[in-house]
Amino acid sequence: MPDPLRLYVDAQFVSPYAMSVYVALHEKQLDFHISAVDLGALEHRAAGFSQLSLTQRVPTLLHGDFALSESSAITEYIDETFAGIALYPRDPRARARARQLQAWLRSDLMPVRQERSTEVIFYGPAGVPLSAAAHHAAKTLFQVAQALLPEGAENLFGDWSIADVDLALMLNRLVMNGDAVPKRLATYADRQWQRPSVQRWVALERPPR
């Protein structure tokens, strides 16, 4: 029997990083169980989870007796461990670019991430305008996305990759809040959002805010 897979995610199902791993597992057509961790109640600091997850964060993937946290590390592990659709481009330069994009989306653009949390996607608009700092960060996001996305292309690197999901989610923080986004990027984000694996995450039942 193969080692079982268990994915630990936030109890609200709004974490963009948990979503990325959830989509990756579905794209690989893997069977897995979900465990919700209540971050508001500090369950990620509790003895059981903190001993399991090295960084005490979600998502954490448990594969048999191996536990791994940090979403891009998990999606790379999934891609290298399991057969099926490729989660990353096979060309080394395109794969490196996809990883670069993932790292940048997770470490930069803080004003957008703060003022347009993923709750605007799953619970409704923020209702306040972007600050000057967030406008500047959004402009940078658009510049990077337009530079990477070829004209008329459905995906960033030819075939779909997990980086498409991550970029689409960042764009949708703005699109779904009603903020101005270049039409080409809004169309791309909407198309990526309709992917069945993404819609499975969207359809999860969430607790009231």
If you had to describe this structure to a student in words, what would you say it looks like?
Helix content is 50%, strand content 9%. The chain is α+β, with helices and mostly antiparallel strands. Strands 2-1-3-4 form a 4-stranded mixed sheet, with helices on one face. α1 (16-27) runs parallel beside α3, α4 runs parallel beside α8 (162-175) and α8 crosses α9. The mean pLDDT is 94.
- Radius of gyration, in Å, reads 17 Å
Distance between the termini: 40 Å
Number of strands: 4
SS-derived structural category:
alpha+beta
* Share of residues in strands: 5-15%
Strand order of the largest sheet: 2-1-3-4
**Main sheet characteristics:** 4 strands, mixed
What is the helix/strand order? EHEHEEHHHHHHHH
**Low-confidence segments, ≥5 residues, pLDDT <50?**
none
How many helical elements?
10
**Average pLDDT reading:** 94
Overall form: globular
Helix content: 40-55%
Secondary-structure blueprint:
Blueprint: E1 5-10, H1 16-27, E2 33-37, H2 47-52, E3 60-63, E4 66-69, H3 71-81, H4 92-107, H5 110-115, H6 119-122, H7 132-148, H8 162-175, H9 183-193, H10 196-202
Parallel strand pairs: 1-2
Antiparallel strand pairs: 1-3, 3-4
Helix pairs in contact: 1-3, 1-8, 1-10, 4-8, 8-9
Could you give a short description of this structure?
With 209 residues, this protein is of the alpha+beta class. 50% of the residues lie in helices and 9% in strands.
